């Protein structure tokens, strides 16, 4: 059955008059009659029978009408449903967050206060290109200039207990801590790779003694003199622990780039562009307000 045949059949079934049905369909009566007959031949059953100047449905016709009417109603609703999908999709921003997830969440919460109609869907997939906005990180010398992208440099410090040999230190060379046990934030593979590269440049492989996906747990472990750990300048927030301090790493240069970029995936990407602008400004402001190592 063709869609046009179905429409012709349902119109004739409702009006029960071929001439009026043809007028409603803006076709000639012979064309309508021929279409109905072709449908009957395709199905192998009669759908109508004559009754004076009108037509009536056969039992086969009644059955077919009962089955087709809800299907046609659904088909007729599809264009409006698609328009609604486009509208909803336009209000949903798909993000691939591979770095600075805590700071990104803060930005989203702040943005939602003034844009309640905007929704967010977050994923963490380094292989996916299906996103509106991505936040990722690379070593400072690996970053590449991409279209529609923003890059923010971030220094990496060493978080150490505020006691013993680190009590009066303001900076450190990384090779000095080659024998120390490192406490690492689990679940941040790109950041872990970057920190491992820092250690390799300093001539050693870090000895990981504790991993956690909870930043507070990492801070508490360092404060308890259980080990040391890398700490980004501003994207993880301040240490806020009187027993932990941050040391500047003098050698090698320990810095990464946070890269935020967006794709024009939608017919109307204005919501994506607006949030991208907000997010980049949020990162800039947080960097300006970032903690100073000397205060820790």
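Q: What amino acid sequence fits the structure above?
A:
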């Amino acid at each position: 059955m063709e869609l046009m045949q179905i429409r012709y059949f349902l119109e004739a079934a409702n009006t029960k008059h071929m001439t009026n049905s043809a007028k409603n369909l803006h076709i000639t009566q012979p064309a309508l009659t021929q279409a109905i007959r072709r449908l009957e031949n395709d199905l192998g059953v009669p759908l109508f029978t004559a009754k004076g100047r009108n037509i009536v449905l056969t039992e086969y016709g009644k059955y077919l009408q009962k089955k087709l009417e809800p299907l046609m109603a659904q088909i007729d609703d599809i264009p409006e449903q698609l328009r609604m999908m486009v509208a909803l999709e336009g209000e949903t921003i798909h993000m691939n967050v591979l770095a600075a997830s805590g700071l990104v969440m803060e930005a989203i919460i702040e943005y939602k206060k003034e844009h309640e109609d905007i929704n967010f869907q977050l994923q963490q997939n380094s292989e996916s290109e299906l996103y509106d906005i991505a936040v990722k990180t690379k070593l400072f010398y690996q970053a590449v200039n991409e279209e529609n992208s923003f890059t923010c440099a971030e220094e990496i410090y060493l978080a150490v207990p505020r006691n013993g040999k680190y009590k009066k230190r303001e900076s450190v060379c990384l090779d000095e801590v080659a024998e120390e046990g490192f406490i690492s934030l689990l679940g941040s593979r790109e950041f872990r790779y970057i920190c491992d590269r820092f250690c390799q440049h300093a001539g050693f492989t870090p000895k990981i003694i504790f991993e956690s996906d909870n930043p507070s747990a990492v801070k508490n472990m360092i404060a308890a003199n259980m080990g040391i750990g890398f700490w980004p300048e501003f994207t993880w927030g301040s240490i806020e622990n009187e027993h932990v301090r941050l040391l500047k790493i003098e050698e090698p240069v320990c810095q990464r780039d946070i890269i935020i970029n967006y794709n024009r995936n939608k017919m109307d990407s204005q919501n994506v562009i607006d949030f991208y602008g907000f997010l980049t400004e949020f990162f800039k402001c947080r960097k300006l307000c970032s903690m100073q190592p000397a205060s820790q």
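Q: And what stands out in the fold?
A: Helices lie at 3-15, 18-25, 29-43, 59-90, 101-112, 189-201, 215-223, 270-288.
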